[in-house]
Design brief:
The complex is a heterodimer of chains A (about 725) and B (about 220).
Chain A lengths: L4 E4 L9 H7 L9 H18 L3 E8 L13 E8 L2 H12 L3 H17 L1 H15 L2 E6 L9 H8 L2 H4 L3 E2 L5 E2 L3 E9 L4 E2 L20 E5 L6 E5 L3 E2 H7 L18 E6 L6 H6 L2 H5 L2 E3 L4 E2 L3 E5 L25 E7 L3 E8 L5 E8 L9 H33 L4 H4 E8 L1 H8 L4 H4 L11 E4 H4 L14 E4 L9 H9 L8 E6 L3 E7 L4 E7 L19 E8 L2 E6 L8 E2 L1 H13 L11 H4 L3 E5 L5 E4 L1 H25 L6 E7 L8 H6 L11 E5 L1 H12 L1 H13 L1 E2 L6 H9 L5
Parallel strand pairs in A: 8-10, 9-15, 16-19, 19-21, 22-30, 24-32, 25-27, 30-31
Antiparallel strand pairs in A: 1-2, 2-3, 3-7, 4-7, 5-6, 9-10, 11-14, 12-13, 12-15, 16-17, 17-18, 20-21, 22-23, 23-24, 25-26, 28-29
Chain B lengths: L2 H11 L2 H13 L4 H21 L5 H24 L6 E7 L7 H12 L2 E5 L6 H11 L3 E5 L7 H12 L7 E5 L5 H7 L3 E2 L3 H17 L1
Parallel strand pairs in B: 1-2, 1-3, 3-4, 4-5
The structure holds cobalamin (B12) and iron/sulfur cluster.
Amino acid sequence: MSNIKIIKGNGRELSIDREIVFKQIKCDEDNPMYEDFNEEYEELLPEVLTALEPAAALVFAPYPQGIGGSIKPGTEVLYMITTVGKKICDIVSDYFKSGDYVKGMLTDAMASAALFSFEKPVFKAIYEMCGEKHMGIRKRYEAPGHIPMEIQRVAYDALNAGETLGLTISSGFMYDPVKSSCQVFETTDNERVMRLTHGCADCSNTDCPHRMESVTVRVSDPEGDYEFSAAPGTLLSDILIDNNIKLNLLCGGAGRCGKCAVKVLEGSLPVTDADKKFFSDKELSDGMRLSCRALVKEDILIELTQADESSMVSLSAEVSRENKDTNASLGIAIDIGTTTLAFSLINKETGDIIDTYTSINSQRQYGADVITRIEAAGKGLDKELKSLIEEDLITGINTLLDKIPDSKKRLQMLCIAGNTTMLHLLMGYPVESLGVYPFTPHSISLEKRKLNEVLSNCGNVPDDIENTETVLIPGNSAYVGADIISGLYSCGFYENDKICALIDLGTNGEMAVGNKDKLYVTSTAAGPAFEGGNIKYGVGGIRGAISSVEINGDKTTIKTIGDSEDVTGICGTGVIEVTAELLKAELLDETGVLDDDYFDDGFPLAAKKDGETIVFTEKDIREIQLAKSAIRAGFETMLKRYGAGYDDIDKLYIAGGFGYFLNAEKAAAIGMIPEELLPKCVAAGNTSLSGAIKTVTEGEKAFDALTELAEKGEEIALSTDKDFNEFYMEYMMFE
Amino acid sequence: MSTISEISEFLQKGRAKNVKQLVTQAIEEGEDPKVILNDGLLNGMMSIGERFKKNEVFVPEVLVAARALNAGLTILEPKLIEVGNEPVGKAVIGTVKGDLHDIGKNLVTMMLKGAGFEIFDIGVDVEADVFIDKAEEVGADIICMSALLTTTMPQMQVVIDALKEKGLRDKYIVMVGGAPVNQKFAEQIGADYYTEDAASCAEAARQVILKRAEG
Ligand code: B12
Ligand code: SF4
């Protein structure tokens, strides 16, 4: 019976849907008692949440003979029992006994709602279990509407629920405590079908207060459609995210970034105000909608329009040569970026890179930048965010190791770099204080742990590597994190006599200047424009993204990532290049106004496969102005504080995923970096990863240097800096 | 307005505090505890029940009224015992064996209290013998059974058969209810009364007892 999966939850992680509760006790907003009940509800909430003891058990088993019902005996089914425990049931009884019927009914309804909401995390586990077996869910059954009541006994036995969940079963096949529930899911070989939700649609109990119609969302896909069901009125983006479709909600679902757009092929989704702002009339009539604003009220068929970011070209260290040595000890270096993850498998003795792996940070579905992640964590998603990154890490680690014989036994060290928020989320540290003044981190010192202490939630760390030493690079502050310290280490800032500078271009532009004696660091909020965010046709560094632009008279030449003909949008480097070229061609003036011909509709760059024209708009230019002046002003302020002029700088390292492809001349042309430093520019790539690699090879020796760098860096706070604000206005213009 | 009718009014509005205070006041004024109970508290609760049946008020109003009733009763009860007040009747109530749904049963309990009954709630998943033993022990007039599952409804029959076997069938009035139960089923198993909701259950129970007292 070892295949039974047990999920234990915590009441405070459950959300109780107030609407369902009030509907159940038949108290609508017009009711004269509504206010009173609302007050009672608020008062009861903490008590109820602490009393809840949510737990669930899941197991696959063949459907038995002799029970009846519409499932064929022998079919593989998944049994699920959920409960919220005895404590809450006792509380309900006590209220009724004492004559407080109001609290009795309310707590009862709240417990039912909690039981229902606990299904969500349990569904996550079902996804995993089905994923492993390559199965989908064809239909959900509940006794006795769809299936005889006896099934509750069968499920009870299959899940050993007496021991695993502490339930008892009555002669009428009901579970005690009563706030429990049993479901049977019929599986299918089609792993893309996931009809997990409650199907009131075919229940005969037509005047039930809990009755929910359900809607089906089908996603059209060349490799075969997939479909999900949900309660009507659910946000489309929620449905997609709940079903593991990775959406890239750059704005955190605020209806601003447009990255969640879908196209409705059948059925209808009403046009929202956000849609009107975002899409042209033609796009609207073509069925384009923002899924983060769309409430699904009827069955629909949609197409995901968002470019598939799993093909994102992210920067990771070059593989130096084929490594055939099968005895060498190994190390893995990891850079956790807000957007992408980069892994390198290293021969620990020679420092050679054996293999690399990159992936998208799955936390991205909860927002593009660190602030939206911090907000999400504050809303109780911290565990979820931790689990997502753990899964991403273990996937990367396994992928690298599985290709090489005996590699798990030879793995001696992992080293992880990343910004402060990413490492906090990984370690499960509280992040609230990172988002508010005075931006205090919980812990940013160098950590030496065992791998299974870091990946403490995911439970599938292979035995051979669970004790492997895992080093977390130290950081300097909430905003100048381990990624920068790692970068400084890789560029030798701990041993340089000469003064060097480093700019890491990401959503936050972090930078440093100094040498082995004195080091200044800072960070500036550049916004997501350089990663394609807030740009009308902006995309990440994916295949088909315009990465280079040249304008010669009437002729515009573009280059795309992977030289793909199927143009997907404009990536960060493309955005800088097109701005620089427009300036050069004098189609853009120094205040940032586009030539009359293009002012209204934007400057056309290329046509998408479906004929749509990719344009660069006036609004995009405004975004670039804000972003580039933030970087430049930060850099200038830092130099001023340090007391260094351009001449004093020996090298300017430009780091960051897209810094690698960056054409420094064009960056200088738009004023993002000083022209004077062009000859000293070094495209350093992902220095955060390079530093982690260096740490793996150097071992113990690196630890002191890292800690020293982390402690030495003196942070300049820009937000309150008068010079910064002046520079910011000054560099807004294009010279 | 007299204190007594004020009690009824405030109870219908669900104002537990006022009801408590008014009951105390009425006792101090020397009102007969039986009058406070019948014309004040129970009168208020019955009116709410009436209005509930006419769809003028809904479950929330009934709940707050019942809570106010309970608040008043805690104060009045010692006085009622002093004067030797007898409840309208005594009822044993439970959810039948195998079934653990208890909200319906709890609401019926609440309304029966509001109709002046003394209630013995024996919980859920109750064996036939437990129903009967409890009724015998307390000298009940009514046995109320609740069942919410089609699979547990037959348990009501089991209780009635056991009563018959023991020669006790005519001693008790048997009332049944719960979502899947209906008049036809009640007749089929030989129960005395079925009602759709808790308010009608309380009214029916009161009338049966009064009729029995007359005849
Ligand atoms: C709330 C509820 C639950 C709660 C239980 C809460 C609790 N503490 O009781 C939870 C979510 C835990 C639950 C679970 C289950 N439930 Co349930 N549940 C319900 C639901 C939605 C409402 C019942 C309720 O409390 N209503 C409110 C009260 C006030 O109404 P009431 O009970 O009907 O009582 C009123 C009248 O009937 C009457 N009355 C009641 N008793 C009496 C007695 C007398 C003497 C008289 C005169 C009148 C009377 O007066 C009451 C007040 O007006 C019903 C659906 C429905 N609409 O009835 C399903 C329902 C009863 N449950 C059902 C089932 C099958 C289950 C489960 C066994 C399986 C499942 N698929 O979920 C599980 C078992 C879980 C377990 N522990 O093993 C079925 C029964 C179907 C059938 N025909 O047998 C129903 C009908 C839903 C359905 N269609 O599937 N359930
Ligand atoms: S209508 Fe009510 S009883 Fe029927 S399946 Fe939906 S919630 Fe359950």
